TrEMBL record:
The chain crosses the membrane at residues 6-39. Pfam families: DUF1622. This is DUF1622 domain-containing protein. Keywords: Membrane, Transmembrane, Transmembrane helix. It comes from Adonisia turfae CCMR0082. It comes from the Bacteria.
Length: 114
């Protein structure tokens, strides 16, 4: 039984690391996409790309937050303590609120962009 627990803990650790890496990759891809928009901007002098940049970065950040939350959930699946569950609850609430308000802002920007 102990071998199974150790194996499961190792699998969860690898999955958690994978989720965190994907989260970082999402943010990096969002940065690259925004830089690309900025570098293309001189070709579009009549329309500043600020709204496009905010929409692009906001979407990638929201996706990164989802993967971070998944990593946190995985981290508490192996022998969770009440302290770890409490921390997860606080983190989940904060990230959910961040994602909610980020999504609302993205929707507002899409309406403005029209």
């Amino acid at each position: 039984m102990e071998l199974l627990e150790v194996g499961l803990a190792a699998i969860v650790g690898v999955l958690q690391l994978g989720f965190e890496a994907i989260s970082v990759l999402c943010i990096l891809l969002g940065l690259i996409a925004c830089l690309r928009l900025v570098l293309v901007q001189p070709k579009r002098l009549y329309t500043p790309p600020f709204i496009d940049i905010r929409l692009t970065l906001g979407s990638w950040l929201a996706l990164g937050l989802e993967f971070q939350l998944g990593a946190d959930i995985l981290g508490t699946t192996i022998a969770p303590s009440f302290e770890a569950l409490g921390q997860l609850a606080v983190i989940a609430v904060i990230r959910t609120f961040l994602n909610f308000f980020l999504s609302k802002e993205i929707e507002a920007e899409v309406k403005i962009k029209g």
